[in-house]
Write a structure and sequence with these properties.
By secondary structure, the protein is α+β, with helices and mostly antiparallel strands. It is 40% helix and 23% strand. The structure holds adenosine-5'-diphosphate (ADP).
Length: 346
């Protein structure tokens, strides 16, 4: 190896950068690799040739890489270990004998792009099925072959349900997109936690959503005459309880109790449990419930009007409110969605 002098400034900067930094001589022999470069490409970098580490056509003949006028080169590289990191590799000729290689880790951006692509694909799929059904019924009705009133009104009823499903889905997608963009901004108002809860219970009773379920509100705080304030947005917290209570009804057995239990053990936080009795959720799915479009039983959720976005919306609203949610479920017994909100000292 040539005795190439490593500039001290590069050595120092390489220690504080989040990117991988490698220096090579004119043959591609690695003479410096910072800890990030080692994390991305492996520990044994020093004294190896970069073309043996990054096996890409761009580096096949390292000393010829910069034969043309340009003294910069950039390409995309994916590591072939388990992590499959996405790196942008930037090579710059510093002088005749020294080359700087920067490794920029783009894995997070790539994953986010994948999540976004999957979401768009899911949304299109979810919208397409009611739309296909609607188009089918419209064509049948337009053909003039459905003459009896009973069949016609049956078709119209299905079309009405499908159109409403599309509407719900679009409402949920818009809500999700709004709460997601705002999740890092704390709400600016202080509200009593009792207000959204009471409003949701009243609205559910008014809309007649109860399948002979009884909604019970239990306030177990030591002084139930006190208000309990949180820093919160009334409409968003209302949406949280709407989604949880509607789920409790949808997935609860008929004729069972739905309990909303308020507990407070110290001045710092308030706990609200939404409890229902139903088939329950298998343990292995609990952590996935807040993923967009995740449903334990897709067909069943669809049939009862679910979009698969309710708990994803809840999750993002809770992040914005610095609140936490835990879920416990016993098959054919109780399911508890437990929310923990920080209390605001008014
Ligand atoms: P959906 O619109 O399908 O109800 P959610 O995001 O609100 O979507 O819920 C995701 C999934 O979580 C549901 O499809 C269901 O499988 C499950 N789930 C939610 N709440 C309950 C509950 N109280 N009991 C049983 N399963 C539930």
């Amino acid at each position: 190896m040539n005795n190439v002098l490593i500039p001290k400034s590069i050595k120092n900067i390489s220690k504080i950068l989040d990117d991988g930094v490698i220096l090579t001589d004119e043959e591609g022999l690695i003479i410096l690799a910072n800890s990030n470069a080692q994390e991305f490409l492996g520990k044994n970098l020093l004294n190896n040739n970069i073309s043996k580490i990054l096996k890409v056509k761009e580096l096949k003949n390292f000393n010829k890489v910069f034969k043309n006028k340009s003294n910069k080169k950039e390409f995309y590289y994916q590591t072939n270990d388990q992590l499959k990191r996405s790196l942008i590799v930037k090579i710059k000729k510093i002088n005749k004998t020294l080359f700087l290689i920067l490794l920029l880790d783009m894995t997070l951006q790539r994953n986010l792009e994948k999540v976004r692509r999957d979401f768009v694909a899911n949304v299109s799929h979810e919208l397409r099925s009611p739309l296909t059904s609607l188009v089918g019924f419209i064509e049948t009705l337009l053909s003039g072959n459905v003459n009896d009133e009973v069949t016609r009104s049956k078709f119209l009823k299905i079309m009405d349900e499908e159109a409403k499903r599309m509407n719900r889905l679009i409402d949920d997608i818009l809500s999700l997109s709004r709460v997601e963009t705002e999740e890092h901004i704390s709400p600016s108002t202080s509200i009593s936690i009792l207000d959204p809860i009471n409003s949701v219970i009243a609205s559910i009773k008014e809309r007649g959503l109860i399948k002979a379920n009884k909604i019970i509100f239990e306030d177990l705080r030591s002084n139930i005459n006190d208000q309990c304030f949180i820093i919160g947005n009334f409409y968003e917290v209302t949406q949280v309880f709407t989604n949880l209570l509607e789920n409790a009804i949808k997935y609860g057995f008929d004729d069972t109790e739905i309990i909303i239990k308020l507990e407070q053990f110290d001045e710092k936080e308030i706990i609200i449990n939404v409890i229902n009795y139903g088939e329950g959720i298998p343990q292995k799915y609990i952590d996935r419930l807040t993923e967009r479009f995740f449903r334990v039983d897709k067909a069943r959720s669809r049939k009862i009007g679910g979009t698969g976005l309710g708990l994803a919306i809840v999750k993002h609203i809770l992040i914005r409110h610095r609140a936490k949610m835990s879920i416990k479920s016993e098959l054919n017994n109780q399911t508890i969605f437990s929310l923990n909100f920080p209390v605001s000292q008014r």
